[in-house]
Amino acid sequence: MVVAPAARTWTGFTTAVRLGWAVSSNWTRPALFVIYAVLRPISTALILVVMYNVITGGRGNARTYLSFLIIGTAFWAFVNEGVSEFAVGILEDRGRFKMLKYAYLAPLRFPIFLVGRASSKLTSAAASVLIVLVVATVGLRLPISPLEVNYGLLAIACLLAFIAVMAFSIALSMILLAGRDAYGYGEIMAQVLYLFSGAIFPIAVLPGPLAFLASLSPLAYWLELTRRAILHGRVYEMFPNLSDGEVLLRLALATAGTVALGYLTYLWADRRARRKGYIDMDANF
Questions:
Q1: What gap in Å lies between CA 145 and CA 166, rounded to an integer?
Q2: C-alpha to C-alpha distance for 227 and 204, rounded to whole angstroms
Q3: C-alpha distances in Å from residue 244, one per residue of 34, 154, 225, 256
Q4: How many domains does the chain have?
Q5: Which end of the chain is more exposed for a tag (fewer CB within 10 A), N or C?
Q6: What's the CA gap between 223 and 247, in Å, rounded?
Q7: What is the pLDDT along the chain (285 residues), one digit of tens a residue?
Q8: Is 121 inside any structural domain?
């Protein structure tokens, strides 16, 4: 009697993951989607590199900042997929495929369905990160050695960040259900976070109040730890006065705060969506 509910939950979770992957690929042939998944992150990284080289003209410590920029861009795929693409997917489930209400009525608890959908996005983002780092190491001659990476620190930092991104994305998707035409808001939110996360420039360059708000986010500490784990000090550090353990502690605290706030927001948005009929509302797409 104890195994059956767990088995049903696992089956529902894996089904949600497969559904998310199928929707992301638009049910296309796997080989064609793999080509797209490879070229998309590479093109994004190369565009930033070209912009950087044109703006700097080769002046300054180019290699150090280029490493900062590439790693931030590579790992940002997790946030882009987890926030923008996930929010769009939930809105598509309601407005385009008309199946969100059936996910609510299914025996599987709806949060498990949402976690499964979000997991599929984060899994596909992992391949994007790996591709960009490999291309950058070979093509741009960045000082990245697979044998020198602190995989333990990298894994812990990414796990905490994934939890935070998932909690934020689920809460955001439930809030967006209130909009009859909310398509594009997930991407807007992802781009806002892009500017306040330290992905492309240190948060210290932001105005004081904005820099303080950015320091409350787990994203800045996560990207700081990814750079330290991969490059071991051979890159610009946003928190030079903090040790790896102190940055990790701040990441854990910020993640805990994000999860707590996201859970409360989810409960509020879920009750509101049920009461006002947002789950099966006719929506523009």
A1: 30
A2: 17
A3: 35, 11, 7, 18
A4: 1
A5: N
A6: 10
A7: 444 677 777 777 787 777 776 776 666 776 666 666 667 777 776 776 677 667 666 555 566 777 888 888 888 888 887 787 777 777 777 877 788 888 888 777 787 887 777 777 777 777 778 888 887 777 777 778 888 889 999 999 999 998 998 899 889 888 888 877 767 777 788 888 888 888 888 888 888 888 898 899 999 999 999 999 998 766 778 898 899 999 999 999 999 999 999 999 999 999 998 898 888 887 665
A8: yes
How is residue 18 written in tokens?
A: 């497969």
The answer to whether residue 283 is domain-embedded is no
From the number of C-beta atoms within 10 Å of its C-beta (0-12, 13-18, 19+), residue 272 rates as middle
Residue 134 CA neighbour count, 13 Å, CB half: 9
Q: Which residues have CB under 8 Å from 104's CB, separation 6+?
A: 110, 279
Structure token digits, residue 146: 């697979």
Task: Tell whether 135 is covered by a domain.
Answer: yes
pTM, to two decimals: 0.83
| Domain hosting residue 142, numbered range | 17-276
